[in-house]
Amino acid sequence: MDYGTYHLSKKEYGKYIVSYLFLEGIITYLFFHSWIFFILFLPGFGGYLADRKKKLQKQRAEQMEAEFLTGMQLVSTSLQAGYAVENAFREAVKELEKIYEEDAFILKEFRYLVSQLGLNRTVESLLAELGERSHAEDIRNFAEVFYTAKRTGGDLLAIIRNTVSEIQQKQETRQEIAASLSGKIMEQNMMSLIPLFILGYVKLTSPGFLDAMYGNLAGIFIMSVCFIVYLAAYFWGRRIMDIQV
Questions:
Q1: Residue 4 in domain
Q2: What average pLDDT does this structure show over 165-185?
Q3: N or C, fewer C-beta in 10 Å, the chain?
Q4: Which residue range(s) make up the domain with 216?
Q5: Is 2 within the bounds of a domain?
Q6: Assigned domain for 5 exists
């Protein structure tokens, strides 16, 4: 299975259709008060869906990397106990079955790897293949290091242990950054909602106050500029909060 593209389930697809229509309805009502703009913004669903898929893909990649780290830690433990590399993966599968559900990424992939070992395929080629299919940086980097170590006859146990340690440190750093940013992300989300709350409050408490902004070219132009500034601020804030490790 290639993990480079996230495929939405029917339930997820339906959920995002409803959420986009709801969000679009609120925004077009508050900013433009027009069904015409609601219809004009319908093609934006494609961009919204692509953004959701990108976010879900990123979350899946992070989960895959975390599971892979656990799997390789188990392999390292088995190697320390004196198992050969191939048997170390077999032992790791037994332990992973106690930790993860049947549909877990690492359990499916390690089971596949072990089954392919029975067909005389090499561990390094299977890990390299997994690295390519996963499209996850940590997994791909580990596969490259493992392939080089296996082919050059280096100290495999030490290399695996050091590489796993580096991946673990990277993931811990990523978790620390996510924890420190969680409050700021919530603040940014709340700040993004404030303009909508203000417009909604004005329309609710002072009906007709914003009528001058609807149904005429000058008003539409002003509200369009406000909407563009609002979108720019929202995406700028998201970009600031998106820190890569």
A1: no
A2: 84
A3: N
A4: 10-241
A5: no
A6: no
Please name the amino acid found at residue 37.
Answer: F
How many structural domains compose the chain?
1
Distances (CA, A) of 118 to 87, 90, 91, 94, 108: 11, 11, 15, 16, 16
Asked if 144 and 160 touch (Cβ cutoff 8 Å), the reply is no
Write the DSSP symbol of residue 207. Answer: T
Say if pTM beats, i.e. exceeds, 0.85. Answer: no
Return the beta strands (E) in the chain as ranges: none
Answer whether residue 106 is part of any domain: yes
Cβ density class 211-230: b for 16+ within 10 Å, e for less? eebeeeeebbeebeeebeee
pLDDT over 90, % of the chain: 33
**Phi and psi, residue 189, nearest 5°:** -65, -40
CA distance 220 to 192: 21
Structure tokens at 8: 């939405």
Q: Copy the structure tokens of residue 156.
A: 């495999």
Q: Using one digit for the tens of pLDDT, what is the confidence trace for 146-158?
A: 888 877 776 778 8
